[in-house]
Design brief:
It is a single chain. The N terminus is likely disordered. By secondary structure, the chain is mainly beta. The protein folds into 2 domains: 94 residues, Carboxypeptidase-like, regulatory domain (Immunoglobulin-like), CATH 2.60.40.1120; 630 residues, Maltoporin, Chain A (Beta Barrel), CATH 2.40.170. The chain has a 22-stranded antiparallel β-barrel. It has a 6-stranded mixed sheet with strand order 9-10-16-17-14-15. Strands 1, 2, 5 and 8 form a 4-stranded mixed sheet that branches. 4% of the residues lie in helices and 54% in strands. It has 3 helices and 43 strands.
Length: 744
C-alpha cells in the first residue's frame, strides 16, 4: 500500500510543480484615509481573454497562466483599472487607486443637490436633502418643483390633490416605491404621495422608462424610489415646523434614541398638519384650499447581526381627513345635501413591512433577501350627492438572490414574488369588487463587458388570476464614449391593472356621469390590463469651463400602448366614458437639460421639454388633454460663505388642449385651448451652527391663477358643473415660513 502511495505521489509531483510554476498569486489592496484595506471581489483576468479570477475576503488571488497573454488586468468598480506585465513574476501585489468616475460627476468642492451617476446602466437622478430643501416640500407631491423631469398638476379645483406626470403620462404609470418596496398603488395611486412627508426623506431616486424586473412589472413611464432617513445614520432629534398664509400648519419630528449594544437601531417619525382657514380668493363660492387634518406615524427598526444577517422592520399609520366644496359647507350638517355642495374624504391606512437578508462572508457580491409588506386601506368619501367608498387589503413578498457567474464581470439576480390585492369599491349604487393574485419569477443578468460598456437584461414571468400569464422583458445598455460622455439605451414592457375610480378621483368633483364600458367577464371592471412598451435613449456629457463643473443631458423616450384604459371626457361634456383602447396610443418625450456652476456657489439648471402624446378617443386620434406640448424651466441656487441660501425657480408652460364643453349652456363654454403661463417660486434659507435653519418663501410670485376653474360654480347641482378641467394654478400667491432644528 505504501508503495502504491509513493508511486502516485511521484506521478503527481510534476503536475504539482508545473501548477505552482504556471500560476500567479498575490494580493489586491487600496489606501483609504491613509490606511491599507484589502479589496474583496476584484475582477482579475488575462488581457484579451475571458479567463479570470476574483480576489477573496483578504484580497488574495491565484490565477493560472495562459498562452494567449502575459498582461494581467485588475478591474474593480469605483477604482482605476490597472494592467501588470507578469513575465518572470510569480507574485503580484497591486494597489488600486479610487476612480474619479465613482460618483459620475467630478465634484471637488460641494455636493450637488441632484446627481447622475455615469456608472449606472440606468440613468438615475438622485435628489438628496439639499434638493428637497430648496422648496417647502411638505410631502412628496410637492418635492418636484425644482426638478424638470416630473410635472406636478392639480386633479381638480375642489380636493386640492396634486398628481405627478412623467413622459407625459399620469402618475399611476410610474412605479413609486419606498426603499424598493411598492408603495403608492391601488387606492393610494392619487393621494399616496401625501402619505410621505418630505421632512422624512433622505433622498429620491428617479429614472425614466422601464426599470429593473426585480421591482415588479408595473413600471411603464418610470420609477421613483423614496429613501427615508435610516435609524443608524439620522440625527438623534430632528424637528421641522411650517406655516403658510392659507393657515396650513405642519410639524414633523424624527427621534432616533441610542440603544444599548450595536446590533439594533430604531427611529420614530411623526407628522401632523392642519388647514382650518376658509379661503375663497376668487369669489366663486368654493373653498380655494380644502380644510384638512393629517396624522401620520412611522416606527422603524434595523438589526445588524453576525454572519452577515441584516433585518429591517417597520409599521406606519396614516389618517387623512379633507373637507371641501362650497364655503359654508359643514360635513356634519350638510352631507349629501341637495342645497349646498360639499366634499368629504376620510382615509385610514395601516402598513407593516420587513426586510430580512444575508450577505455572505468574504463574498460581497453574493447575498439574498426577503421583502414582505402588508397594507390595509379604508376610504370613505362623498362628492355632492355621489358616494364613493372603498377598501383594499394587499400583501407583497419578494425573494431576491444575487451572485456571480465565474467572476464579477457576470452578475445575476434572480428570485420570485407574489402580489395579492383585494378591493371592495362602491360608487353610488355600483359595486366593483375584485381579487387579484399574481405569482411570478424573474432573472436579471448584468454583463460588465468592459469598464466602458455594461448590459443588463431581465425577464419576468408572471401569472394573473384573471389576465393569465404574461412576460416582462427589459434591457438596459450603457456605453462610456469617453471619460465624460455616456450613452444609455433602454427597452422594456410593463403591465398594470387600472384603478379607474381611484386613479381619476378628480372626476367625481363634477356632474359627469361615469360610464364604464367593460365586458361581462371576471376582469377588474370588465376591462383588460394596461400594457405598453417603452423605449429610451439618453446622453450625458460632463464638462468643465473656467474650472467649474457642468453637465448637459438629452433624453428621448417613446411609449407605445398595446392596451390602455381610456378616460374619454371629449365625447360629451356631461359624461365620461371608460373603455379599452381601440386604435393607437403613444407618448413621445424629448428633454434637454444643462446644469452648471456659473460662478462659485451659484448653480443654474436649465431645461426644455417637448411632448407628443396622442390617444384614440372614440375612433379619433387626439392629443392628450390638459398637457402642455412645450415646457421650459430654470432654477438658480446660490449659497453664501456665511450659510445663506437663495433659490429661485421659473416655469413656462405652453398651451394645452381643454376637454370639450360643447353642449353646455353658453355661459359655461370654455375655449378649446388654454393660454400659456409662467410660474415663479423663491425661497431664502439661513443656517446657524449647522443645526438650526429658518426659511421663508413665496410660491406663485406673479399670483397667476386659472380664471373660473370651476365650470358652473353657481349651479353645483346642474348638469354643467365640472371642477376637473384644470390646466393651470388654482392657488394664488402663497407665502410661507418654516424652521428646522436637529440634535446630532
Amino acid at each position: 500500500m505504501k508503495k502504491i502511495k509513493s508511486i502516485i505521489l511521484i506521478l503527481l509531483l510534476p503536475l504539482v510543480l508545473y501548477s505552482q510554476n504556471n500560476s500567479i498569486t498575490g494580493q489586491v489592496t487600496s489606501v483609504e484615509k491613509g490606511t491599507p484595506v484589502e479589496l474583496v471581489g476584484v475582477n482579475i483576468y488575462w488581457q484579451g481573454t475571458s479567463i479570470g479570477a476574483v480576489s477573496d475576503i483578504n484580497g488574495n488571488f491565484e490565477i493560472v497562466r495562459v498562452s494567449e497573454s502575459t498582461s494581467l488586468v485588475f478591474s474593480y468598480i469605483g477604482y482605476q483599472k490597472d494592467t501588470i506585465e507578469t513575465t518572470g513574476l510569480k507574485i503580484v501585489n497591486v494597489e488600486l487607486k479610487q476612480s474619479l468616475l465613482l460618483d459620475g460627476v467630478d465634484i471637488t468642492e460641494r455636493k450637488q443637490a441632484t446627481q447622475i451617476s455615469l456608472l449606472n446602466p440606468l440613468k438615475v437622478e438622485t435628489m438628496n436633502e439639499k434638493e428637497l430643501q430648496k422648496a417647502a416640500c411638505c410631502n412628496i407631491s410637492e418635492s418636484f418643483e425644482t426638478n424638470p423631469s416630473v410635472d406636478v398638476s392639480f386633479t381638480d379645483a375642489v380636493t386640492g390633490t396634486r398628481q405627478i406626470q412623467m413622459l407625459g403620462l399620469a402618475g399611476p404609470y410610474s412605479q413609486i416605491t419606498r426603499e424598493n418596496i411598492p408603495s403608492v398603488r391601488g387606492l393610494s395611486s392619487l393621494y399616496g404621495l401625501v402619505y410621505i412627508p418630505g421632512a422624512w426623506v433622505e433622498s429620491i431616486q428617479l429614472n425614466k422608462g422601464t426599470g429593473s424586473v426585480l421591482n415588479g412589472f408595473e413600471s411603464i413611464a418610470g420609477q421613483i424610489n423614496v429613501e427615508l432617513h435610516k435609524p443608524e445614520d439620522t440625527d438623534k432629534l430632528y424637528l421641522n415646523a411650517f406655516l403658510n398664509q392659507e393657515g396650513r400648519t405642519e410639524l414633523n419630528a424624527i427621534y432616533a434614541p441610542t440603544l444599548k449594544g450595536e446590533k439594533w437601531s430604531t427611529a420614530l417619525f411623526l407628522h401632523g398638519n392642519q388647514i382650518s382657514n376658509r379661503t375663497d380668493h376668487n369669489d366663486d363660492g368654493f373653498l380655494d384650499v380644502p380644510l384638512s387634518k393629517h396624522l401620520i406615524g412611522l416606527n422603524r427598526w434595523k438589526y445588524v447581526g453576525d454572519n452577515g444577517i441584516r433585518m429591517q422592520l417597520g409599521i406606519k399609520g396614516t389618517y387623512v381627513d379633507n373637507v371641501g366644496g362650497q364655503k359654508d359647507f359643514d360635513p356634519d350638517d350638510d352631507a349629501f345635501s341637495a342645497s349646498i355642495w360639499g366634499m368629504h374624504v376620510n382615509q385610514q391606512r395601516f402598513e407593516a413591512w420587513s426586510k430580512i437578508g444575508k450577505v455572505f462572508d468574504g463574498m460581497s457580491w453574493k447575498s439574498m433577501g426577503l421583502q414582505l409588506t402588508a397594507i390595509s386601506h379604508e376610504h370613505e368619501s362623498f362628492f355632492g350627492a355621489r358616494e364613493y367608498d372603498a377598501e383594499q387589503q394587499s400583501f407583497y413578498s419578494n425573494y431576491v438572490y444575487q451572485s456571480i457567474i465565474g467572476n464579477t464581470n457576470h452578475q445575476f439576480k434572480t428570485g420570485a414574488s407574489f402580489q395579492y390585492d383585494k378591493y371592495k369599491e362602491v360608487l353610488s349604487t355600483e359595486i366593483f369588487n375584485r381579487e387579484e393574485m399574481v405569482p411570478g419569477a424573474y432573472f436579471e443578468y448584468t454583463n460588465l463587458v468592459s469598464e466602458n460598456f455594461t448590459a443588463v437584461a431581465g425577464l419576468r414571468a408572471d401569472y394573473h388570476n384573471n389576465y393569465g400569464e404574461f412576460f416582462t422583458p427589459r434591457l438596459h445598455l450603457r456605453y462610456a464614449i469617453n471619460d465624460g460622455l455616456v450613452a444609455r439605451a433602454s427597452a422594456g414592457k410593463g403591465q398594470r391593472t387600472a384603478n379607474i375610480i381611484a386613479d381619476n378621483m378628480g372626476l367625481l368633483a363634477s356632474s359627469r356621469v361615469i360610464n364604464v364600458m367593460g365586458e361581462n367577464n371576471d376582469n377588474p371592471y370588465g376591462l383588460d390590463a394596461e400594457r405598453a412598451w417603452n423605449y429610451g435613449f439618453n446622453l450625458v456629457q460632463c464638462f468643465k469651463i473656467n474650472g467649474k463643473e457642468g453637465t448637459v443631458s438629452a433624453d428621448f423616450y417613446r411609449t407605445d400602448f398595446i392596451n390602455q384604459i381610456i378616460i374619454d371626457t371629449d365625447r360629451s361634456a356631461d359624461s365620461v366614458f371608460v373603455y379599452n383602447l381601440d386604435g393607437e396610443s403613444y407618448s413621445n418625450s424629448i428633454q434637454l437639460q444643462v446644469n452648471y456652476e456659473i460662478v462659485k456657489r451659484l448653480d443654474v439648471r436649465l431645461a426644455y421639454r417637448w411632448f407628443d402624446v396622442q390617444t384614440t378617443y372614440n375612433g379619433d386620434l387626439k392629443s392628450k388633454p390638459l398637457l402642455a406640448t412645450h415646457r421650459a424651466f430654470a432654477n438658480l441656487a446660490y449659497e453664501t460663505p456665511n450659510d445663506w441660501k437663495f433659490d429661485y425657480t421659473i416655469n413656462w408652460r405652453g398651451s394645452q388642449r381643454v376637454p370639450t364643453t360643447a353642449g353646455n349652456n353658453i355661459q359655461n363654454y370654455r375655449p378649446n385651448k388654454s393660454p400659456d403661463y409662467i410660474l415663479m417660486n423663491t425661497q431664502v434659507t439661513k443656517s446657524w451652527l449647522g443645526n438650526f435653519d429658518v426659511y421663508v418663501g413665496v410660491e406663485n410670485i406673479l399670483d397667476y391663477t386659472q380664471d373660473d376653474p370651476i365650470i358652473a360654480s353657481d349651479e353645483p347641482f346642474g348638469s354643467d358643473f365640472d371642477a376637473s378641467s384644470i390646466w393651470g394654478p388654482i392657488f394664488g400667491r402663497n407665502m410661507y415660513v418654516g424652521l428646522r432644528y436637529k440634535i446630532n
